Amino acid sequence: MTKAKWTEGWGLFWLLTLALAAMTLGLLFAAGWGTDGYRLVIRATARTSLILFLAAFAASAAARLWPGTVTHWLRRNRRQLGLGFAMSHFIHALAIIALWQTDPGTFWTLTNRGAIVTGGTAYLFIALLAATSFDRAVKAIGPKAWGWLHWLGVWFIAVSFIFTNGKRIPVSGWYALPVALVLAAIILRIAANRPRISIAA
Fold first, then answer.
1. What value does the CA radius of gyration of the chain take, rounded to a whole number of Å?
2. Which pLDDT band holds residue 5 (cuts at 50, 70, 90)?
3. What is the C-alpha separation between 186 and 77, in angstroms, rounded?
4. What are the tens digits of pLDDT across the range 81-99?
5. pLDDT tens digits for range 126-179
6. 65 neighbors 189 (Cβ within 8 angstroms)
7. CB 184 within 8 A of CB 80
8. How far is CA 43 from CA 19, 28, 33, 48, 165, in A?
9. Phi-psi region of 112 (alpha: psi -120 to 50; beta: other; left: phi over 0)
10. CA angle (194, 198, 201) in 5-degree steps
11. Cα(73)–Cα(135) distance, integer angstroms
12. Please, which of 86, 99, 106, 115 could form a disulfide with 130 given CB 3.0 to 4.6 Å?
């Protein structure tokens, strides 16, 4: 497969999937298949999920505000970037489950039932968005229902990222960075969708 195919469409999705799998296995072999390894994978996939989500979430807005090669590539491949995000968060979920099964004491010190409910809702949206990211699914549920589902889903996920990282800022100031990035992406989308007024000469 040529470089062009690997960086476009489904070639990009499989490249992202292979990279995520390689990263996960590398971390587990380095840190061990136990608490330390699973926590490392959880942290790493939280970061990759955020990056991929932001790329898909802001793609159309960025292309509208700053048309160019990179932004047009983002918009052209936002479906695959979104599915890459879903794959990253699927691995994230597997690592969380593995931690729960092998070290429930550590698991419950890091989370609570409320977080599980909100996180589970976010995962439900991720699954629905991934399952309806195909033309056949759009035709099956109808463009209007598809539009509402994806609008509600991406905004719920965006708010979830803000909430999940925001509540950890007292532990480490670094968690303010992902919050700021998501807020910036939200501002970008609002700015791109704002009506433009043109004044005729």
1. 18
2. confident
3. 19
4. 999 999 999 999 999 999 9
5. 999 999 998 888 889 999 999 999 999 999 999 999 999 999 999 999 999 999
6. no
7. no
8. 16, 12, 15, 9, 12
9. beta
10. 170
11. 20
12. 86
DSSP string over 8-73: SHHHHHHHHHHHHHHHHHHHHHHH-SSHHHHHHHHHHHHHHHHHHHHHHHSHHHHHHHS-SHHHHH
Kindly give the residue spans of alpha helices, DSSP state H, lying in 132-194.
135-141, 143-166, 176-193
Residue that has been written with the tokens 């996920």 in this structure: 157
> What is the per-residue pLDDT across 8-33, written as a single tens digit (0 to 9) for each?
999 999 999 999 999 999 999 999 99
**Token pair for residue 2?**
């040529």
